[in-house]
Amino acid sequence: MLQGKRLALFDMDGVLYNSMPYHAIAWKKSMEAYGIDMTEQEAYMYEGMRGVETIKIVAGRQWKRDIPDEEAQQMYRKKSEEYAKFPTASLIEGVKEFQQFLVEMGLKVGIVTGSGQMSLINRILHDFEGLVSPDIIVTANDVSHGKPLPDPYIKGMEKGGFSPEETIVIENAPLGVQAGKAAGCFVIAVNTGPLSDEILKDSGADIVCSDMTQARNALLSQHNY
Ligand code: CA
Q1: 157: CA distance to ligand 1 center in Å?
Q2: Residue from 134, 131, 137, 133 nearest 96 by CA
Q3: How many angstroms is it from 218 CA to the middle of ligand 1?
């Protein structure tokens, strides 16, 4: 499967960092403050979507009205404040080794995230120095339409100058997998969260793995045939 591949685009939350458990709690608590019911499980279902879009869905459902951009942005700031109370998220086990393997196989590594949190994005450049190409990082600020639409991954390929045929996407969330497939890429889902593998398969993932080592081995074994 690595034949002809030149770019690997990694999602951030739940793929680079074990940050999703914190995000899930921050979502639940911040929405609770507005009287909105949102479960942690839902945070995983909407993972990858731009924060304001998620708010428009859950608040719109609760209040039975459209939520204007400005109101949603205000509420998203509350969510970001809750998230900021948590300690720094640890790296996902084996992710640097997986990137090192891809770099050695001649691929460039980029990041495509629905997050706009500058603290984590600056950290990427520090934590993955020499692995991630600094010019191939796409954040919520680079696109107006987020995952599950293909725009973020298309933007990542544009920044690197590669085609969908040359690109592998590494995702952990259903909407992220859908975005990668809609962009025409080969998508590896690494299931680092509480959702079932079936949900990731149903979203269109080409391979579903349980960790980064398995993802690397899956690519390696397919490469040899
Ligand atoms: Ca993710």
Answers
A1: 18
A2: 131
A3: 20
